[in-house]
Give the backbone structure.
Amino acid sequence: MSASHISWTTKLLAVVRYEILWNIRKKKFLGMIVVAFALATLSLAASHIVSAITGAPVEPNPNFVINSNVGLGGFGFFLFAIVTAMNTISGEFESGTIVPLLAKPISRTTVFFGKLFAAFLTLLATYCFLMIYMTIGGFVVYGPQNNLHLVPLSLLGALISTLIWISAVLLLGSLSKSSLIAALGALGIWLGTTIIGSILGALAGQGWILTYIPGSGTSAFAGEPPSLGVPPAVSTGTDSIGPNLINYILHPSWEVMYYKINIGATTPGQMLESLYSEPFANVILRSIAVALIYFIIFVGTSWYVFRRAQVAE
Protein backbone atom coordinates (compact mmCIF):
# COMPACT_ATOMS: atom_id res chain seq x y z
CA MET A 1 0.00 0.00 0.00
CA SER A 2 1.43 3.39 -1.00
CA ALA A 3 1.98 6.11 1.57
CA SER A 4 -0.76 8.22 0.02
CA HIS A 5 -3.32 5.51 0.69
CA ILE A 6 -2.40 4.88 4.30
CA SER A 7 -5.30 5.98 6.51
CA TRP A 8 -4.98 8.83 8.97
CA THR A 9 -5.73 6.44 11.84
CA THR A 10 -2.85 4.18 10.83
CA LYS A 11 -0.48 7.14 10.70
CA LEU A 12 -1.71 8.38 14.07
CA LEU A 13 -1.19 4.97 15.67
CA ALA A 14 2.30 4.83 14.17
CA VAL A 15 3.16 8.11 15.90
CA VAL A 16 1.62 6.83 19.15
CA ARG A 17 3.70 3.66 18.91
CA TYR A 18 6.84 5.69 18.17
CA GLU A 19 6.24 7.95 21.17
CA ILE A 20 5.45 5.11 23.59
CA LEU A 21 8.52 3.12 22.49
CA TRP A 22 10.61 6.27 22.92
CA ASN A 23 9.22 6.67 26.45
CA ILE A 24 10.07 3.05 27.21
CA ARG A 25 13.62 3.38 25.83
CA LYS A 26 14.17 6.51 27.88
CA LYS A 27 12.65 4.73 30.89
CA LYS A 28 10.13 7.56 31.27
CA PHE A 29 7.21 5.19 31.85
CA LEU A 30 9.17 3.14 34.37
CA GLY A 31 10.16 6.32 36.16
CA MET A 32 6.53 7.44 36.34
CA ILE A 33 5.50 4.10 37.86
CA VAL A 34 8.28 4.35 40.44
CA VAL A 35 7.34 7.92 41.37
CA ALA A 36 3.64 6.98 41.49
CA PHE A 37 4.42 4.06 43.79
CA ALA A 38 6.53 6.27 46.07
CA LEU A 39 3.92 9.03 46.34
CA ALA A 40 1.06 6.59 46.90
CA THR A 41 3.05 4.70 49.54
CA LEU A 42 3.80 7.98 51.31
CA SER A 43 0.09 8.83 51.27
CA LEU A 44 -0.79 5.43 52.71
CA ALA A 45 1.94 5.58 55.35
CA ALA A 46 1.26 9.16 56.48
CA SER A 47 -1.00 8.16 59.35
CA HIS A 48 1.51 5.56 60.58
CA ILE A 49 4.29 8.15 60.46
CA VAL A 50 2.17 10.54 62.53
CA SER A 51 1.29 7.69 64.88
CA ALA A 52 4.96 6.83 65.37
CA ILE A 53 5.74 10.46 66.21
CA THR A 54 2.75 11.27 68.43
CA GLY A 55 1.84 7.85 69.77
CA ALA A 56 -1.79 8.25 68.63
CA PRO A 57 -3.36 5.07 67.24
CA VAL A 58 -4.23 4.77 63.54
CA GLU A 59 -8.00 4.98 63.29
CA PRO A 60 -10.00 3.07 60.65
CA ASN A 61 -10.98 5.28 57.74
CA PRO A 62 -13.59 3.71 55.46
CA ASN A 63 -13.55 6.74 53.14
CA PHE A 64 -9.81 6.92 52.61
CA VAL A 65 -9.78 5.50 49.06
CA ILE A 66 -12.56 7.67 47.64
CA ASN A 67 -10.99 10.80 49.16
CA SER A 68 -7.39 9.98 48.23
CA ASN A 69 -7.44 11.51 44.71
CA VAL A 70 -5.52 8.42 43.49
CA GLY A 71 -2.88 9.17 46.10
CA LEU A 72 -1.86 12.48 44.54
CA GLY A 73 -2.61 16.13 45.15
CA GLY A 74 -2.20 19.26 43.11
CA PHE A 75 1.59 19.05 43.12
CA GLY A 76 1.43 15.38 42.17
CA PHE A 77 -0.69 16.16 39.10
CA PHE A 78 1.67 18.96 38.13
CA LEU A 79 4.73 16.73 38.62
CA PHE A 80 3.29 13.98 36.42
CA ALA A 81 2.43 16.55 33.74
CA ILE A 82 6.04 17.75 33.74
CA VAL A 83 7.45 14.22 33.50
CA THR A 84 4.98 13.23 30.81
CA ALA A 85 5.13 16.24 28.50
CA MET A 86 8.18 18.44 29.14
CA ASN A 87 10.14 16.98 26.18
CA THR A 88 7.29 15.59 24.09
CA ILE A 89 7.58 18.42 21.56
CA SER A 90 10.65 20.37 22.61
CA GLY A 91 12.77 17.22 22.96
CA GLU A 92 12.42 16.51 19.24
CA PHE A 93 13.81 19.96 18.39
CA GLU A 94 16.61 19.73 20.96
CA SER A 95 17.82 16.33 19.75
CA GLY A 96 17.29 17.05 16.04
CA THR A 97 14.97 14.06 15.61
CA ILE A 98 12.23 16.43 14.47
CA VAL A 99 13.83 16.53 11.00
CA PRO A 100 13.56 12.82 10.11
CA LEU A 101 10.20 12.64 11.89
CA LEU A 102 8.64 15.39 9.77
CA ALA A 103 10.33 14.04 6.64
CA LYS A 104 8.01 11.05 6.80
CA PRO A 105 4.69 11.17 4.91
CA ILE A 106 2.84 12.24 8.06
CA SER A 107 1.35 15.67 8.66
CA ARG A 108 2.40 17.81 11.59
CA THR A 109 -1.15 17.62 12.90
CA THR A 110 -0.92 13.83 13.01
CA VAL A 111 2.46 14.01 14.76
CA PHE A 112 1.16 16.49 17.34
CA PHE A 113 -2.02 14.64 18.24
CA GLY A 114 -0.27 11.27 18.13
CA LYS A 115 2.17 12.53 20.74
CA LEU A 116 -0.67 13.99 22.83
CA PHE A 117 -2.58 10.71 22.70
CA ALA A 118 0.55 8.77 23.67
CA ALA A 119 0.97 11.05 26.69
CA PHE A 120 -2.65 10.37 27.63
CA LEU A 121 -2.17 6.59 27.37
CA THR A 122 1.00 6.76 29.48
CA LEU A 123 -0.83 8.79 32.09
CA LEU A 124 -3.85 6.48 32.02
CA ALA A 125 -1.70 3.39 32.59
CA THR A 126 0.11 5.07 35.49
CA TYR A 127 -3.09 6.26 37.16
CA CYS A 128 -4.78 2.86 36.75
CA PHE A 129 -1.82 1.36 38.60
CA LEU A 130 -2.22 4.02 41.29
CA MET A 131 -5.95 3.43 41.61
CA ILE A 132 -5.51 -0.33 42.11
CA TYR A 133 -2.60 0.15 44.51
CA MET A 134 -4.44 2.75 46.60
CA THR A 135 -7.56 0.57 46.77
CA ILE A 136 -5.61 -2.45 48.01
CA GLY A 137 -3.48 -0.31 50.31
CA GLY A 138 -6.55 1.40 51.74
CA PHE A 139 -7.96 -1.97 52.76
CA VAL A 140 -4.70 -3.03 54.37
CA VAL A 141 -3.99 0.22 56.23
CA TYR A 142 -7.45 1.60 57.05
CA GLY A 143 -9.76 -1.39 56.93
CA PRO A 144 -12.85 -2.02 54.75
CA GLN A 145 -13.63 0.83 52.38
CA ASN A 146 -16.97 2.38 51.43
CA ASN A 147 -18.30 3.29 47.97
CA LEU A 148 -15.51 1.69 45.99
CA HIS A 149 -17.77 1.73 42.92
CA LEU A 150 -17.11 5.49 42.80
CA VAL A 151 -13.32 5.15 42.59
CA PRO A 152 -13.31 5.39 38.75
CA LEU A 153 -14.61 8.95 39.16
CA SER A 154 -11.43 9.72 41.06
CA LEU A 155 -9.43 8.32 38.14
CA LEU A 156 -11.42 10.44 35.68
CA GLY A 157 -10.90 13.57 37.76
CA ALA A 158 -7.16 12.91 38.09
CA LEU A 159 -6.82 12.57 34.32
CA ILE A 160 -8.66 15.83 33.69
CA SER A 161 -6.66 17.62 36.39
CA THR A 162 -3.35 16.47 34.92
CA LEU A 163 -4.24 17.04 31.26
CA ILE A 164 -4.61 20.77 31.95
CA TRP A 165 -1.00 20.96 33.10
CA ILE A 166 0.14 18.69 30.25
CA SER A 167 -1.43 21.09 27.76
CA ALA A 168 0.31 24.04 29.46
CA VAL A 169 3.69 22.26 29.33
CA LEU A 170 3.14 21.35 25.66
CA LEU A 171 2.38 24.99 24.85
CA LEU A 172 5.50 26.26 26.59
CA GLY A 173 7.60 23.57 24.92
CA SER A 174 6.19 24.37 21.48
CA LEU A 175 6.81 28.09 21.93
CA SER A 176 10.33 27.81 23.36
CA LYS A 177 11.51 24.49 21.84
CA SER A 178 13.24 24.00 25.19
CA SER A 179 12.35 21.31 27.72
CA LEU A 180 13.95 23.32 30.53
CA ILE A 181 11.91 26.43 29.76
CA ALA A 182 8.76 24.30 29.46
CA ALA A 183 9.36 22.82 32.91
CA LEU A 184 10.43 26.04 34.63
CA GLY A 185 7.66 28.08 33.01
CA ALA A 186 5.02 25.60 34.11
CA LEU A 187 6.55 25.58 37.60
CA GLY A 188 6.24 29.35 37.75
CA ILE A 189 2.58 29.18 36.76
CA TRP A 190 1.90 26.49 39.35
CA LEU A 191 3.67 28.41 42.11
CA GLY A 192 1.80 31.58 41.20
CA THR A 193 -1.63 29.97 41.28
CA THR A 194 -0.85 27.98 44.41
CA ILE A 195 1.00 30.43 46.66
CA ILE A 196 -0.09 33.89 45.52
CA GLY A 197 -3.60 32.69 44.78
CA SER A 198 -3.96 31.09 48.20
CA ILE A 199 -2.94 34.34 49.88
CA LEU A 200 -5.50 36.27 47.85
CA GLY A 201 -8.19 33.77 48.72
CA ALA A 202 -7.51 33.36 52.43
CA LEU A 203 -6.59 36.90 53.42
CA ALA A 204 -8.09 39.24 50.81
CA GLY A 205 -11.32 37.36 50.22
CA GLN A 206 -10.68 37.25 46.47
CA GLY A 207 -10.66 33.49 46.20
CA TRP A 208 -13.24 33.58 43.40
CA ILE A 209 -10.34 34.41 41.06
CA LEU A 210 -8.84 30.97 41.72
CA THR A 211 -11.99 29.21 40.51
CA TYR A 212 -11.29 30.46 36.99
CA ILE A 213 -7.66 29.34 36.67
CA PRO A 214 -6.10 25.86 36.81
CA GLY A 215 -4.95 24.65 40.19
CA SER A 216 -6.24 23.99 43.67
CA GLY A 217 -8.83 26.76 43.64
CA THR A 218 -9.92 28.31 46.89
CA SER A 219 -10.71 26.55 50.16
CA ALA A 220 -14.28 26.45 51.36
CA PHE A 221 -16.56 24.52 53.67
CA ALA A 222 -19.56 22.36 52.86
CA GLY A 223 -21.88 24.09 55.33
CA GLU A 224 -21.56 26.92 57.81
CA PRO A 225 -18.11 28.31 58.70
CA PRO A 226 -16.56 26.38 61.58
CA SER A 227 -16.63 27.53 65.15
CA LEU A 228 -16.18 24.56 67.45
CA GLY A 229 -17.27 21.90 65.00
CA VAL A 230 -15.62 21.75 61.57
CA PRO A 231 -17.76 20.95 58.49
CA PRO A 232 -16.10 19.06 55.64
CA ALA A 233 -13.57 21.18 53.80
CA VAL A 234 -13.65 21.24 50.00
CA SER A 235 -11.30 22.62 47.38
CA THR A 236 -12.99 24.28 44.42
CA GLY A 237 -10.23 24.09 41.81
CA THR A 238 -9.49 21.80 38.91
CA ASP A 239 -7.14 19.68 41.05
CA SER A 240 -10.11 18.35 43.07
CA ILE A 241 -12.54 17.37 40.32
CA GLY A 242 -12.40 13.67 41.24
CA PRO A 243 -13.12 13.94 44.99
CA ASN A 244 -15.73 16.64 44.35
CA LEU A 245 -17.59 14.43 41.86
CA ILE A 246 -17.66 11.62 44.44
CA ASN A 247 -18.79 13.92 47.24
CA TYR A 248 -21.53 15.38 45.06
CA ILE A 249 -22.96 11.92 44.37
CA LEU A 250 -22.87 11.16 48.10
CA HIS A 251 -24.02 14.62 49.25
CA PRO A 252 -25.95 16.35 46.42
CA SER A 253 -27.54 18.90 48.78
CA TRP A 254 -24.26 20.37 50.05
CA GLU A 255 -23.93 24.15 50.04
CA VAL A 256 -20.37 25.45 49.72
CA MET A 257 -19.51 28.40 51.96
CA TYR A 258 -16.57 30.67 51.10
CA TYR A 259 -14.67 32.62 53.74
CA LYS A 260 -11.62 34.75 54.43
CA ILE A 261 -9.30 34.92 57.42
CA ASN A 262 -9.52 37.95 59.71
CA ILE A 263 -5.99 38.76 60.80
CA GLY A 264 -7.12 41.07 63.59
CA ALA A 265 -9.64 38.68 65.13
CA THR A 266 -9.50 38.50 68.93
CA THR A 267 -11.50 35.29 69.42
CA PRO A 268 -11.46 31.95 67.57
CA GLY A 269 -15.06 32.45 66.49
CA GLN A 270 -14.08 35.62 64.59
CA MET A 271 -11.12 34.14 62.74
CA LEU A 272 -13.18 33.25 59.66
CA GLU A 273 -15.53 35.70 57.95
CA SER A 274 -18.27 34.28 55.71
CA LEU A 275 -18.37 35.69 52.19
CA TYR A 276 -21.02 33.86 50.18
CA SER A 277 -22.29 30.38 49.40
CA GLU A 278 -23.39 28.43 46.34
CA PRO A 279 -24.65 24.91 45.51
CA PHE A 280 -21.99 22.21 45.31
CA ALA A 281 -23.14 21.38 41.77
CA ASN A 282 -22.06 24.85 40.62
CA VAL A 283 -18.56 24.28 41.95
CA ILE A 284 -18.18 21.01 40.06
CA LEU A 285 -19.63 22.24 36.77
CA ARG A 286 -17.48 25.34 36.84
CA SER A 287 -14.25 23.44 37.59
CA ILE A 288 -14.91 20.99 34.74
CA ALA A 289 -15.76 23.83 32.34
CA VAL A 290 -12.61 25.73 33.34
CA ALA A 291 -10.50 22.60 32.84
CA LEU A 292 -11.92 21.93 29.37
CA ILE A 293 -11.62 25.56 28.23
CA TYR A 294 -7.99 25.87 29.29
CA PHE A 295 -7.16 22.47 27.80
CA ILE A 296 -8.71 23.38 24.44
CA ILE A 297 -7.02 26.80 24.36
CA PHE A 298 -3.59 25.48 25.36
CA VAL A 299 -3.68 22.47 23.04
CA GLY A 300 -5.09 24.49 20.14
CA THR A 301 -2.42 27.17 20.50
CA SER A 302 0.33 24.58 20.88
CA TRP A 303 -0.85 22.77 17.74
CA TYR A 304 -0.94 26.05 15.79
CA VAL A 305 2.60 26.95 16.90
CA PHE A 306 3.91 23.45 16.12
CA ARG A 307 2.42 23.49 12.62
CA ARG A 308 4.21 26.73 11.82
CA ALA A 309 7.48 26.05 13.60
CA GLN A 310 10.61 26.49 11.52
CA VAL A 311 12.79 23.36 11.40
CA ALA A 312 16.53 23.80 10.87
CA GLU A 313 18.22 21.08 8.87
User: Anything to note?
Assistant: The longest strand covers residues 272-279. The chain has eleven helices and four strands.
